[in-house]
Amino acid sequence: MASDFGSMPSATARIVITGVGLTAPNGDSLAEFRRHLLTGVSGVSRTEVHYMGTQLAGVCRFDALRHQKKKEVRVGTRAGSISIYCAREAVADSGVAWEAVAKDRVGIYIGITEHGNVETENEIYNISKFSYDTKFWSHYHNPRTVANNPAGEASLNLGVTGPAYTIGAACAAGNMGLVHAAQMLRLGEVDFALCGGVSESIHTFGIFAGFKSQNALATHNDPTKASRPFDLARNGIVISEGGCLYTLERLDDALRRGAKIYAEIAGWHVNSDASDYVLPNPTRQAECIRAALTRARLAPRDIHLVNTHATATPLGDIQECEAIRAVFGDGCPDTSINNTKSFIGHCMGAAGALELAGNLPSFDDLIVHPTINVDNLDPQCALPGLVLNAPRQVAKVDTILNNSFGMLGINSTLIVRRFVP
Description:
- This protein is an alpha/beta fold.
- The chain has 14 helices and 15 strands.
- The strands form three sheets. It has a ten-stranded mixed beta sheet with strand order 5-4-6-8-1-9-15-14-10-11, with helices on both faces.
- Strand 10, helix 11 and strand 11 form a beta-alpha-beta unit.
- Helix 7 crosses helix 13 and helix 10 packs across helix 11.
- The protein starts with 14 loop residues before the first strand and ends with a strand.
């Protein structure tokens, strides 16, 4: 065990965030990401997709070679490169003496929506040029497509010998990475965790084709205005790639090494709709939010910022607003509500983790970033406290509630609080 880590695990141990590493369509660091959220900079642009031509998407532009060699990028996956970049940046941000850390006491827990589709589609596309002769099929295909690939690539790059695996939780996965890490720290399975979510979704034509067949793929003449949750003219999802990983530690360990602390994990809950493959269930979503509040020992009025999952689908936004209205009602005057997908589109497995990161600086600057692209608010999405089109200065931000929901009815709510010794 590394000298910096020695606290005793317990079911009630306080868990804190000490590092953040991210890449988003509109920023490759927390500082850049936050600056663009406050100044209205969208990361949505156009990209070419196999068989579908030009599509709107959130494309990341981080430097993969910052932490990988060219051969590693060539052999590995886009999701692996995103994981490595975010993990390395989070470790650096945490200030931990990485070389002295016992790598068998480090855990990597990465949420994903899906993995492997990109690599299989690419191989089929490649062999189509050779009359589908499978002798041209890459021998790297299998390690590229296993579900644990993103975490596995990160473990190889960082030399982590502790548990490293992914958590498949559709678009609730970003939150799930943090929830799982907090649980493992409390159980004493690890002393230091890298966790969050990643997505390489824009590189698979199947997800574009699938959403298009559902009439759920956003269209707009201006890419930066395509993602428009809560707007009456919203018409679907902008598919995006990205990633955000955090370093989590038990509080005693973080204090012992003098780490800066972004926030404390206050509570969480995960449940399932058990009602439909795709359509969300506002009753189950409300139950998820209430249960997270109960775990955190907070009342709705104690929450100062709610980050919504809203993806800009006509029905999905309304149903989440129903769930939020059922929990918060009109009796929470200090609660602000915003949405990050309006800037970056839907980063799938990375969505929850990135959206939390974009709001963490509110603890320091007391500014709530807005939902942009709302020209005509849908009356069914009109929530008290909704911050639209311009940042809002507020008196207090001590708690943030982050919603992430996914297909097949998985719901996750994560609550973080301002760290107070």
